[in-house]
Specification:
The chain has about 110 residues and is α+β, with helices and mostly antiparallel strands. The chain has two helices and four strands; from the N terminus they run E-E-E-E-H-H. Strands 1-2 form a two-stranded antiparallel sheet. A hairpin with a 3-residue loop joins strand 3 and strand 4 (about 50). The longest helix has 16 residues, at about 70-85. The radius of gyration is 14 Å and the shape is globular. The termini are far apart.
Length: about 110
């Protein structure tokens, strides 16, 4: 069930476009995020949704070749469930997220 306590969310940024660019994530952000040109991938993301090291940072809508809006709705539900601690299956530990994100980056 849903509790009435809000999640501890600092900011939500809505972005749209076709090329992956994150100018708001820079050296001062202290985050390791890289776009893989021509591959439509962002690293290091677990399941191309959660930042592998910082799972409270999510990238909804990166996938291509999907029915976008229903898929993005499912992604949003998964992100919220994890933020409020109500995910049916919690995210794996850091080591497993990093391994999975590396395998995804290498899969092309």
């Amino acid at each position: 069930g849903c509790n009435d306590a809000p999640a501890d969310v600092d900011i939500i940024i809505f972005c749209s476009g076709y090329d992956y660019q994150f100018p708001f994530i820079n050296d001062m952000s202290n985050l390791d995020v890289s776009c893989m040109p021509g591959e439509r991938r962002v690293a290091p993301l677990y399941e191309q949704l959660w930042h592998a090291r910082h799972p409270n940072l999510s990238f909804v809508g990166l996938q291509h070749s999907v029915v976008p809006f229903p898929f993005f709705e499912l992604q949003t539900q998964a992100v919220v469930a994890n933020l409020v601690g109500e995910a049916a299956v919690p995210l794996p530990n850091l080591e497993d997220r990093l391994k999975a994100s590396q395998a995804d980056a290498e899969s092309g």
